[in-house]
Amino acid sequence: MISFSLAGKRALVTGANTGIGQAIAVGLAEAGAEVIAAGRSSCAETVALTGGRELRLDFADPMAASGAFAEPIDILVNNAGIIRRADSVDFTEADWDEVMDVNLKAVFFTCQAFAKAALARGAGGRIINIASLLSFQGGIRVPSYTASKHGVAGLTKLLANEWAAKGINVNAIAPGYIETNNTEALRADPARSQAILDRIPAGRWGEAADIAGAAVFLASPAAAYVHGAVLNVDGGWLAR
Asked: Which residues constitute the domain of residue 154?
């Protein structure tokens, strides 16, 4: 029987204080997982919604999670991320480095810490990285974000190649245009927002909860043979 149950599993979700991270944390909890909500700011609301607990991590330090896997963790969701917007001719080194550190370097070293711990105890696990439509497209005015999310897609495939036979499934979700803090600037621009909406076959911006089901699937026994996938949850954007 195909199972989507996460009963008895423990999940660590980064950037779980709001938006997509919070929605994923709630979805995993509803599927039966014990959830650790990690973020640089308070995750108290997420803890209240999931019945889990909080872990303060600031991924401005890419090694922030190096000690987070002393206890067994079955599921890792790398959701924490930041974005900086400016014309490429004006983009600063600081904005490049800050985004790459959080969105890509921290993702790799958090995956590494998770895998080291899982392999040391002879267990498998599930890693779900949050990619983006900009893992496939260029976008505009977000050079470091685009580079980092292309990197997340590639890193997901590389780690799947190395760890699939060791019982660790590594996959990614590429959200479309979702109503979160990261897209606030786009939604505040009426012309840009309408242009985006006009291209989405589903006819609406996504909600953070739209990503949760995909995360539950990838974390569950139902996805046992899924490795190295980047699952688009975009209302049909990339199909247009």
From this structure: 10-180+208-231
